[in-house]
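Quality-control log, excerpt.
Job 1 of 2 completed; input and output follow.
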Amino acid sequence: MTQRTDTRRQTVFHHPDQGVTLDFVEQRKIKFTLAAGSGWRSPYHWHVLHHGCRRITCLQGCILATTETPYGGSGSSAGDPGTYEIIRPGDLHVWSSQNPDQELIVLLEAEDEILYRNTSSATLDATRFPFLVSTPFWVKLLYSLLAFSPAAQRLIIARLLWIQLQMMYFAHDFWVHHGSVNAPYFWHSTHPYSFE
C-alpha cells in the first residue's frame, strides 16, 4: 500500500501546476515565490484566534494586498520591494502579484507554519490519495469504478483535495471566505407579496 510522502524535514515545496514555491526559511517565516504568469493568489481568509498571517513583506516584484477589517475599513494597497502589510486577527485579506507577468517574492511571517506545510504536502500527494492505507474503502472503490474516464478520476481527486484543505484550514484557524448571498435582497426581489 502507498504511504504519504514524509515531508516533516522538507524545507522547500514546489507546486509546478500553480507556479508557486514555498521555502520555509526559518521558524514562522515562509518565502513564497510566484513565477511569472502563475496567476496564483492566497485564499481570501481571516484568522480569529491569532495572527495567522502576521506580516507580509514584498521582497521582489510588486504585491497587491487587499484587507477588510471587521470595523468597516477596507482597501487595497500595492507595494514595491521593502513594503509590508500588517494583518491583525479578524482582518479579511488576500494577496497576490500586481503584475502577473513578473516574478513575485514575498516573505510571510505566520503564526502557524504547520498549516502551510500540511496543505503543501496534501497538494503534492493528491494523486496518491486514492491508494493510501488510510483512504476510506468507498473512495478507493469509486476511483477504481471510474477507471474508464481519467477526467472523472481527476475530478474526484480535485474534490477530495478541496475537502482535505478545508478541514486543514478549519483545524488551524484559517477561515476561508467562500462568498455570501444577500438573502433579504433576494427575498424581496423574488417574493410575490409586497410589504408596504
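Job 2 of 2 completed; input and output follow.
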Amino acid sequence: MNKPFASVLLALSAIIPAQAFAATPIEGIDAMREWNLIVLGDLESSSNVEGRTFVGGNLSGNSSDYRKDTPPPSANGTPGLTVVGSVTGNHKNLWGGAQVGGSVQSGFNLNGPAQTVRIGGTLQNTNLNPPNSAMINLNSTDPSF
C-alpha cells in the first residue's frame, strides 16, 4: 500500500468515530465503502452526491442533494446524510434519511420512499408528510445518540 493512501486510511480511522451513528463499527477503508463523500470538517455545498455523505463538522450552502441515485441500502443502516454538527443554508434534498448531531435550520426535502431523520437538536423548515418521520432533540433524550 502506498504511503499517502495508508495515511488517509489512518486519518479516517482516527477521526471518523468508530460508530459514526451506525449500528456496527465502520473503520478505515470500510468508511470509503460506506460513504461516497467523506468530509472531516465543515462542508459548504450546492452539489449532488449520488451516494451517502459523512460530514464531520457543519453542513451549509445552497440547496444540495444527498443519495440522489439511491445506491443499495447500507448493511450498517447508514442514512443518506450523516452530519456531526448542524445543517444551515438552503433546503437539503434527501433520498435516504439523515442523522444530524446538532440542529437543522435549513430544512430537508424528503424525496422518494419513506425516510427517517434523527436530529440531536431542533428541526426547522421540514414538512414531515407520512410516511416520513423525525426523531428530534435526541441529545437530551437519548444518551447513546
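Post-run check on job 2. Confidence is low (pLDDT under 50) at residues 1-15, 17-22.
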